[in-house]
Design brief:
Largest sheet: 7 strands, mixed
Number of domains: 1
Structural class: mainly beta
Number of strands: 7
Order of helices and strands: EEEEEEE
Oligomer: single chain
CATH architecture: Sandwich
Number of helices: 0
Helix content: under 10%
Shape: globular
């Protein structure tokens, strides 16, 4: 799936991922390939991107949209 992480200042990440774990405001959740459509708010915590290795981004809240194997994260800030 394609993942983009964007803040008001710049694009932080753009690429392919096999799994992404998010700090939802109601608890942590994971998105895999072919996930059902989803929109959720994010709390403060780690976004863990798995694909070619593992990368972690610390966000201070935001919104995530999952649609047709495309994941878009609009983050308030990357800490």
């Amino acid at each position: 799936m394609t993942l983009e992480i964007i803040t008001p200042d710049k694009k932080i990440f753009s690429g392919e991922a096999t799994a992404v774990t998010f700090p939802g405001t109601e608890g942590q959740f994971q998105v895999l390939n072919n996930h059902a459509a989803l929109v959720s708010t994010l709390g403060k915590g780690n976004i863990i991107v798995e694909g070619n290795g593992k990368e972690t981004f610390i966000v201070d809240g935001g919104v995530v949209e999952v649609l047709n194997n495309k994941v878009l994260v609009l983050a308030e800030a990357i800490l």
